[in-house]
Amino acid sequence: MTGKVYIVGAGPGDPDLITIKGLKAIESADVILYDRLINEQLLTYAPAHAKHLYCGKAPSHHVMPQEEVNHLLVTLAQKGYTVTRLKGGDPLVFGRGGEEAQVLNDHHIPFEIVPGITSGIAAPAYAGIPVTHRDYSSSVTFVTAVTQKGVNTAEYWQHLAQGSDTLCIYMGVKKLPDICALLLRHGKSADTPVALVHHGTTEQQLTEVGTLSTIVERAAHINNPSMIIVGEVVRLREELSWFKEISAPTSVNHSKTSIHFI
To answer: What local confidence, expressed as pLDDT, does residue 246 receive?
Structure first.
């Protein structure tokens, strides 16, 4: 008898932000395949008999290749297990959940997709930055800094620079100098506010704020995983900041930095 797969968004890090339906999927699982950025406290809700399989993907290092994850989902379900695929944030927002669902559909495996809170919304919110606001932003774009092969980089970033009030950029810390340079090149003001939120919604959260002309140097101490937020809404952090963060290093030089176009 074929089992079933639940593709579940675990939220951005704070374990309290998972949905009730997502929690029920963990509680009913025979096997849980979980990613690097989920809060492992969520695994304590699994039944005692459930097996936990780590499928984490760090930049340039995949513990389990995607093809193997796909194969496991199919094989375990075909053996009759209830499988919960636990993914950070939302499974369909840069989470490859759509690809996994396609594989399951191809093999006639029953599945459900359980949405989760994506870090593109949650990290700014915990930093006191609303991604939309009636007085500052009526549009928001969620984008990854990792572009597909064959994409015209200039056209891509020109569209982003001119097409939305707020940009929420995933997987962009290492490319921050390039991102700033491209946005400046394609029309964004050097004074456009920018924030980086590291480990948003967790005890390790750290936010650094600057502008397109200063953020590269200001955020030199920020590593992955982090969200980049670009737009006037960042100015609201000073007024709306509510979440107590760890202290930023005091050795960072906050002098204005020059940007070299790529």
So the answer is: 76
